[in-house]
Amino acid sequence: MDAIKKKMQMLKLDKENALDRAEQAEADKKAAEERSKQLEDELVALQKKLKSTEDELDKYSESLKDAQEKLELADKKATDVSYPHPFHHHPVQKPHTLCAGQPG
């Protein structure tokens, strides 16, 4: 009879331990699901921020491209003014001199 009582007591302890482990596993699962949800929310926020940053980069890249084109055009105009084309003839004008007897 004592052996049966001991066996019953051991089975009861095993059952309690199994229930405790199941409760702990359930709590761990719930914590993991909450952490997963939190990380998913963070990921969505970071993806939105990345998209916004990429859009901003595109905008500034386009502005930079426009500014570089304007600068190149201004440089070209400045170069054309500074260094006239060698085959383009500009007549040299002589200074007007007043001579006696000429109207002027």
TrEMBL record:
Pfam families: Tropomyosin. Keywords: Actin-binding, Coiled coil, Muscle protein. It comes from the Eukaryota. Residues 1-38, 81-104 are annotated as: Disordered. InterPro entries: Tropomyosin (IPR000533). One of its GO terms (molecular function) is actin binding. Residues 12-38 have a biased composition (Basic and acidic residues). Belongs to the tropomyosin family. This is Tropomyosin 1. It comes from Buteo japonicus.
